[in-house]
Amino acid sequence: MTDDGEGLPLADRLARRIRTLLISGELSPGQRLSEAAFSDRFDVSRNSLREAFRLLTKDGLLRHEANRGVFVAVPSMASIIDIYRVRRMLECGSLRQAWQQHPAIRAMRAAVEMARERRAEGDWIGVGSANMMFHTAVIDLSDSARLNEFYERISAELRLCFGLLNDPEHLHSPFVDMNDAITTLVETNRPQEAAAQMETYLNLAERTMLKALERASELA
Amino acid sequence: MTDDGEGLPLADRLARRIRTLLISGELSPGQRLSEAAFSDRFDVSRNSLREAFRLLTKDGLLRHEANRGVFVAVPSMASIIDIYRVRRMLECGSLRQAWQQHPAIRAMRAAVEMARERRAEGDWIGVGSANMMFHTAVIDLSDSARLNEFYERISAELRLCFGLLNDPEHLHSPFVDMNDAITTLVETNRPQEAAAQMETYLNLAERTMLKALERASELA
DNA sequence: ATAGAAATATTGTTGAACAATATTGACATT
DNA sequence: AATGTCAATATTGTTCAACAATATTTCTAT
Known about the structure:
Chains A, B: InterPro entries: GntR_C (IPR011711), TF_FadR/GntR_C (IPR008920), Tscrpt_reg_HTH_GntR (IPR000524), WH-like_DNA-bd_sf (IPR036388), WH_DNA-bd_sf (IPR036390). Chains A, B: It comes from Shinella yambaruensis. Chains A, B: This is GntR family transcriptional regulator. Chains A, B: Keywords: DNA-binding, Transcription, Transcription regulation. Chains A, B: Residues 8-75 form the HTH gntR-type domain. Two copies of one chain form a homodimer. In chain A, a hairpin with a 3-residue loop joins strand 2 and strand 3. The radius of gyration of chain A is 18 Å and the shape is globular. Chain A starts with 9 loop residues before the first helix and ends with a helix. Chain A contains ten helices and three strands, in the order H-E-H-H-E-E-H-H-H-H-H-H-H. With 220 residues, chain A is mainly α. In chain A, helix 1 crosses helix 3, helix 4 (77-96) packs antiparallel against helix 10 and helix 5 packs antiparallel against helix 9 (176-187). Chain A folds into two domains: 10-72, Arc Repressor Mutant, subunit A; 77-219, Four Helix Bundle (Hemerythrin (Met), subunit A). Chains A and B meet through helix 3, helix 4 and helix 7 of A and helix 3, helix 4 and helix 7 of B. Chain A binds a DNA duplex (30 and 30 nucleotides) through residues 9-10, 34-36, 44-48, 50, 66-69.
């Protein structure tokens, strides 16, 4: 299952490895990523590593300061607001024009089921990734390769923000039922209502994130 | 005016220069970009050039084939359909939630005026760039840095498609009046109608592009 | 304790090197 | 003439070592 990208250019494989470190929280926001240390750690040349850094910088996961190096991006209120603006645009837009028979709807339903099961088991990380799958499926409704790719980037950036949070239960758990409702609305061919529901979902999630960020920055 | 990106990393400046070549049509779709030739041409090392190539590949302007090199992306029907799907989502979405007093509306109006003037002078290239400015202003309505950046990427990809066309007058000129109408609708606080109008605009433009592509590929 | 200067480390960029892969061209076979 | 094979050549993939330019740290004098 762990596709390590056999055959892909080294820089891409590297970027992927570092990305997983970033979204799994093993690298903290603001932390500096020394070229020497990382090229050593991954056993690649500095040049290859720099290519990977550039890719990740373009994805918004790293920040580059001239002559000072690259740093893990630090989520701010502004970035969270922006990210949720994007999500409202893409996810609500996808839902609004969704076709009742689209295969992605089954993926949405499956994600809801999975979230339910995980929640029942108290597996909050599992609930989180099922939730993730749900929203990816929503974007799939748009049938656009470019939108999918863009959403993936936004999604990774958001996961970086999750790293700041310590309370995954409170963050994802309440949303499972809303996902269910949204799925049902699409299944019964009421895309407008589904989009409206998604909008309230996202506004709520946004406020939750902002609140959490506020709490986190008070501590620091 | 020509911001050559003083202080930015070399790879970024390079990418920008090559991007200009691409969207101005000086490099043709499908053409191979030899590392040796280009690092020589721009007087930079192969390593730096490769970083730039990676950036542009991520933007969808270049295509990378393992051990074979990078090529200018060749627009296909699929890519045009996808691009217009994205444009409908972003531009209609921006309009739908537009606030009557948003400063970007003045930019839209200004772009319409400029397009009018250029058209009167028969300056079709000028009409094209004014049209471009109009749509960028529409995205500005969303107040999202990430959406703006994404749209810029999509926009560059579309300009690559324009390169296939030989008839800028027929391509842009008929749309000036629609832009005017859309702007008026937003100015008079009728965002829903503006979005609907934009949707017909984009469907029309999409069909025009597809038709042109078809003609172009018949010749080849 | 602080300002400034010297010493050190890091990034930015280059050029050369070499292995791995792709393309070309010569040659033989049908 | 068309096709297949194999060596010769060119290109990409990646590394390494070097050095200039810029930051950071350490040291010193006040």
